[in-house]
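Predict structure. Chain length: 292.
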Amino acid sequence: MALQSRPQPMNASEHHAKVKVTLTLSDPIFIAGRCISGKMDVESRADLDSLLGIGAMTVELYAIEGSSFNSATHPCADYLDFEEIISRDHSATSTFIHYRRIFQGPGLPPSNAVYPDYVPADGKPLLPAHHHAARRGLTTFFFRFPLPVSSPASIRFGPASIRYEVRANVSVAWRGDRRLVTDTREVRVVESLDAIAQTEIPQAVSISEGGKIWARASITSGAVVGGEAVCIDLQLKNYTSRWTCGVTVFLTRSLRLSNTLVGEKPLYTWLTSSPKLIFVALNIHFLLELRD
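Prediction complete.
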């Protein structure tokens, strides 16, 4: 199932005979609360005599949440009563973040990608309004978009998806034809760690033998990051006549839907997706072996 995306104008295309637009992101993954940054390269392959015009140049950031249902491919299609569904095949999208950076356009001075004062010779057609003669070569434009700290992570969960994309748009006029040359890059976003959860030390306490055996385990290394080490502090108190001869500590990881967490408080929860969809819970377990 294809991910939902923003619709484009009818004259939009990623390919043009004389202009190439390329987007490059500064990082493969971005954290909510920070900035999405990168650059847009505009390459013109036309000489001044060919009178290639470049107009508005923009870079936009979209955050899109979407859902879709296909009765032919849905795994539960055979068990659904389609008489109770108004539309058997449907899709919906909603944009909850939209930023735009304008590098050239109406009300702005010409950029370095064009000749600002060029006037066509007598007998040559004039360029459309707000278009300027393009310079041959490569011009780079840098951009940065602030990402709210409350932004959910990129996810595709069944028919639902949350995705971020950066789109570059360059208006091009050549030989009487006006085109919008575009390039799009999907952005991977992860949620930021909650500031309150960052100050709390996850821990678990166990008491047995009428309070004579007491054990407490806590994660002291802060946020748990995949591929890195985790520091666990285990404290034991044994007031019985038996010896502590064996201690085993291990972590378990479980994938849970948010409604399964109602009434439960796992030792440490690392949020990896949308706040209302999926949680990954890390729990500390320890075993004690006592001998007389």
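Summary: Residues 74-88, 260-279 have pLDDT under 50 and may be disordered.
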